[in-house]
From TrEMBL:
<dbReference type="InterPro" id="IPR001650">
    <property type="entry name" value="Helicase_C-like"/>
</dbReference>
<keyword id="KW-0378">Hydrolase</keyword>
<feature type="domain" description="Helicase C-terminal">
    <location>
        <begin position="448"/>
        <end position="608"/>
    </location>
</feature>
<keyword id="KW-0234">DNA repair</keyword>
<dbReference type="InterPro" id="IPR045562">
    <property type="entry name" value="RecG_dom3_C"/>
</dbReference>
<dbReference type="GO" id="GO:0003677">
    <property type="term" value="F:DNA binding"/>
</dbReference>
<dbReference type="GO" id="GO:0006310">
    <property type="term" value="P:DNA recombination"/>
</dbReference>
<dbReference type="InterPro" id="IPR014001">
    <property type="entry name" value="Helicase_ATP-bd"/>
</dbReference>
<keyword id="KW-0347">Helicase</keyword>
<dbReference type="InterPro" id="IPR012340">
    <property type="entry name" value="NA-bd_OB-fold"/>
</dbReference>
<dbReference type="GO" id="GO:0043138">
    <property type="term" value="F:3'-5' DNA helicase activity"/>
</dbReference>
<comment type="function">
    <text>Plays a critical role in recombination and DNA repair. Helps process Holliday junction intermediates to mature products by catalyzing branch migration. Has replication fork regression activity, unwinds stalled or blocked replication forks to make a HJ that can be resolved. Has a DNA unwinding activity characteristic of a DNA helicase with 3'-5' polarity.</text>
</comment>
<keyword id="KW-0233">DNA recombination</keyword>
<dbReference type="GO" id="GO:0005524">
    <property type="term" value="F:ATP binding"/>
</dbReference>
<dbReference type="Pfam" id="PF17191">
    <property type="entry name" value="RecG_wedge"/>
</dbReference>
<feature type="domain" description="Helicase ATP-binding">
    <location>
        <begin position="268"/>
        <end position="429"/>
    </location>
</feature>
<keyword id="KW-0413">Isomerase</keyword>
């Protein structure tokens, strides 16, 4: 029955069938899988708590006879006052002047409509007479075409469900439904189309969201599994005892998140497939030490490791750290950058080729053709988005299928990471080391700049340093923005000889930039005025104060990256956003910054404000479309589904047991099993 045309249902003639066809409904199956795009909530609400522009149902007493204004052909506006609770409001109906006969002073009505909070008006869409009846609280609304009304559509739906409900097979394995307490398929369809209340609808949605995400994850994971099985890699058999001993020599205990990620990396190293992993960790979450442990693991297995950073100064910082950890245990570290002198470079390359250097750190100088490793087993790139795909590939090819780890401090919401980087495994450090002081963030208007400078002076007098960030380098006619050069001049005038001011921007040569950065790092410069070039991973723990001019011009992710330059030492740090945002969204961004220091939360917020299409800048995301699931709001379900899918695919039962039949079918239908790409 289920695959019969809808015209088999009572009341569906030729015309209706045609109208249904317009929204993609041919069979009864199509009909019951047409989900409402929203639910109308008819529960009574208090207007005091109803936000502006929200739809609401209220009970009210009519306080004035309705008046009707005719606005031209078939157009009219009916209006009366009513008392809803303690609110004396206006109720307006457009083009329903026939209601005039039914509404009279003193009568009780139940109105549903849109609440205009400012003008205290409800623009009504439906009205019933008398107090609200218990009956309907919650009604689905479908996206329909032609002359089919919601009510009639629901009748067809009722009939369809009643006809085929019994023959519907369960499509989710029982054990999954039990462990997540998901309703069965009959219940779920009932709850989607005929919810008794909000919870009923919610439970139905929960089930379908999970099912949808599970199917999606099965496809991605099946693809990844196939890739893994086809691509040869090396098994890095590290020495666990040595690794453990090394970890105990660190000056602190690893956070839970660091331990988890170290385990994920080590597991990948051991596997004979090539590691292709993305490590995300908020600024200051301690990715460097995790990288070091991974590199050391490779060394204990007789391999060499490489760590590539986007700037010299970052490479130097990494080298410094690694020397500190590795010199005492006799692991040989070397640094290769553009400024390595010819003779030293030649020696270094010889040692590298002879396998005398265990770990090579550097900038893209690492990928020059004459850089040859003896036995490269593990490659890590820091701030991976700074390198092109091509550069990463060249580095990888310096070994024979070495394992690869990409690190980034740009928090990409987990949801997007899992989907957009479908082919990579993703590790996340979502916990900061204990005892970190939260950066205090304030949002001020331009006219308050003086008080900001006073506060900055206090910090400087206490021996701390400060950053001032300005969006553009040179004055532009179009944009009334404070620019770095101008800000630099102003601050020089303001501080006179009391403090040393430095200037940094993208037009400087990289050695000039490095020189300025080094002077700041060494404390010779007290205030560093800069454009966003300081964004990447620079560590100056003594800098505790950051002022960002025209902060509304930056996205949340970037503001957060910038802010991460302070709060890296023992002292309390501050970030002041100077902004006069014009839009609500801009205001909300500033508020979000003052409310949280959590990069992932901000990334989620950013995603919410901008939508996933905009998140990556251009429309390259290739994100799938879902019927019910929403990547922003259902990310927990997505993660659960991901884990379940992974387990399933490696379980033999999945490939033969009856209860997986439908999931298997979906997988086959999606083409993944034939090795097609799904994006
Ligand atoms: P990022 O993830 O931004 O690269 P880093 O690796 O530079 O972060 O680490 C930031 C700071 O936190 C460093 O000073 C590092 O020594 C410190 N750190 C890292 N892990 C821990 C930990 N588990 N406990 C305490 N401090 C830590
Ligand atoms: Mg780092």
């Amino acid at each position: 029955m289920i695959h019969e045309p809808v015209s088999q249902l009572k009341g569906i003639g030729k015309e209706t069938a045609e109208n249904l066809m317009k929204i993609g409904i041919e069979t009864i199956h199509d009909l019951i899988w047409t989900f409402p795009y929203r639910h109308e909530d008819f529960r009574l609400k208090d207007l005091t708590e109803t936000p502006h522009n929200e739809r609401v149902t209220i009970e009210a007493r009519v306080e004035s006879e309705p008046t009707v204004l005719f606005l031209g052909k078939n157009k009219s506006r009916l209006q009366f006052t009513a008392l809803a609770g303690r609110h004396l409001i206006k109720v307006v109906f457009f083009n329903q002047n026939y209601l005039r006969q039914k509404i009279s002073t003193g009568g009780i009505i139940t109105v549903t409509g849109k609440w205009d909070r400012g003008r205290q008006v409800i623009v009504g869409s439906s009205v019933t007479f008398g107090p609200k009846t218990e009956q309907v609280d919650f009604e689905p609304v479908y996206s329909l075409k032609g002359n089919i009304q919601q009510k009639r559509f629901r009748k067809y739906m009722r009939q369809a469900l009643d006809t085929v409900k019994e023959e519907l097979p369960e499509t989710l394995p029982n054990y999954l439904r039990e462990s997540y307490q998901l309703v069965n398929i009959q219940e779920a369809l009932e709850g989607v189309h005929f919810p008794l209340n909000a919870d009923h609808a919610k439970q139905a949605r929960r089930r379908f969201v999970y099912e949808e995400l599970l199917q999606f994850q099965l496809r991605i994971q099946a693809l990844r599994k196939a890739n893994k099985e086809n691509e040869k890699g090396i098994s890095v058999r590290f020495d666990l005892e040595k690794l453990k001993a090394f970890i105990t020599t660190l000056p602190y205990e690893l956070t839970g998140a660091q331990k988890r990620v170290v385990n994920e990396i080590c597991k990948d190293l051991l596997l004979p497939q090539r590691m292709n992993r993305l490590l995300q960790g908020d600024v200051g979450s301690g990715k460097t030490v995790v990288a070091a442990i991974g590199l050391y693991a490779a060394v204990t297995a007789g391999y060499q490791g490489a760590l590539m950073a986007p700037t010299e100064i970052l490479a130097e910082q990494h080298a410094e750290n690694l020397h500190m950890w590795f010199d005492p245990i006799g692991v040989k570290i070397a640094l290769l950058s553009g400024s390595t002198k010819t003779k030293a470079r030649r020696e270094l390359l010889a040692q590298l080729a002879a396998g005398e250097i265990d770990i090579l750190i550097g900038t893209h100088a690492l990928i020059q053709p004459d850089v040859e490793f003896k036995k490269l087993g593990f490659v890590i790139t820091d701030e991976q988005h700074r390198f092109g795909v091509e550069q990463r590939r060249v580095l990888r090819e310096k070994g024979e299928n070495p394992d690869v780890l990409f690190m980034t401090a740009t928090p990409i919401p987990r949801t997007l990471a899992i989907t957009a980087f479908g082919e990579m495994d993703v590790s996340i450090i979502d916990e900061l080391p204990a005892g970190r002081k939260e950066i205090e963030t304030h949002w001020l208007k331009k006219e308050q700049l003086n008080s900001v400078l006073m506060r900055m002076t206090q910090e400087l007098e206490a021996g701390r340093q400060a950053y001032v960030i300005a969006p553009l380098i040179e004055e532009s006619d179009k944009l009334d923005v404070q620019n770095a050069v101008e800000a630099y001049e102003q601050l020089k005038a303001y501080f006179g000889t009391r403090f040393e001011i430095g200037l940094m921007h993208g037009r400087l040569h990289s050695d000039e930039k490095d020189a300025v950065m080094r002077a700041f790092s060494d404390g010779e410069i007290h205030v560093l005025v800069s454009t966003t070039v300081v964004e990447v991973g620079v560590n100056v723990p003594n800098a505790t104060f950051m002022t960002i001019y025209d902060a509304e011009r930056f996205g949340l992710a970037q503001l957060h990256q910038l802010r991460g330059r302070v709060g890296r030492g023992e002292h309390q740090s501050y970030c002041v956003l100077i902004a006069d945002p014009k839009t609500d969204e801009g205001k909300e961004r500033m508020m979000s910054m003052t409310e949280t220091n959590d990069g992932f939360r901000l990334a989620e917020k950013d995603l919410e404000l901008r939508g996933s299409g905009d998140f990556f800048g251009k429309r390259q995301s290739g994100l799938p479309e879902f019927k019910l699931a929403d990547l922003v709001h259902d990310y927990r379900a997505l993660e659960t589904a991901r884990q379940d899918a992974e387990k399933m695919l490696y379980d033999e039962a999945f490939w033969k047991d009856q209860e997986y039949e439908f999931l298997r079918e979906d997988l086959t239908a999606s083409g993944v099993m034939q090795g097609e790409r799904i994006d």
